[in-house]
Design a protein that fits this description.
alpha+beta, GTP Cyclohydrolase I, domain 2, four-stranded antiparallel sheet, 4 strands, about 30% helix, folate biosynthesis, Dihydroneopterin_aldolase, EC 4.1.2.25
């Protein structure tokens, strides 16, 4: 496969309305996303061209469109949709590890956040 490298977008914040409970849709809340993207070099390291790699500005926009788009009940489903969307947009990605954090999860106690991580392999 040759040389690979990893691009990471850390702690991307978005306001959305995901969750099982009606009040989560009504009130909405912030969600935080980390994307760890394994990329096949395919000449990018030699060409030094944005066209040969994953443009992280566009990757951020793809994540934003998915997170702020249709409502999902589970953050697991949201994470998978993000991973698939990134792999579809950028053919250079071989693996997308996506973590979604939900700080205001409706639980009967105090916590910092609920977090789900998934790994999706392109192909």
């Amino acid at each position: 496969m040759g040389t690979t490298y990893t691009i990471t977008l850390q702690n991307c914040a978005f306001f959305a309305r995901h969750g099982v409970h009606d009040e989560e849709e009504f009130l909405g809340q912030r969600f935080f996303v980390d994307a760890e993207l394994d990329v096949v070099a395919a000449g990018a390291l030699e060409s030094d061209s944005i066209d040969d790699t994953v443009n992280y500005g566009i990757a951020f926009t793809v994540i934003e469109e998915i997170v702020t788009g249709k409502r999902r009940y589970l953050i697991e489903a949201l994470a998978l949709d993000i991973a698939k969307g990134l792999c579809e947009k950028f053919h250079q990605i071989t693996r997308a590890k996506i973590t979604v954090r939900k700080p205001n999860a409706p639980v009967p106690g105090v916590l910092d956040f609920v977090q789900v991580s998934i790994e999706h392999f392109a192909g």
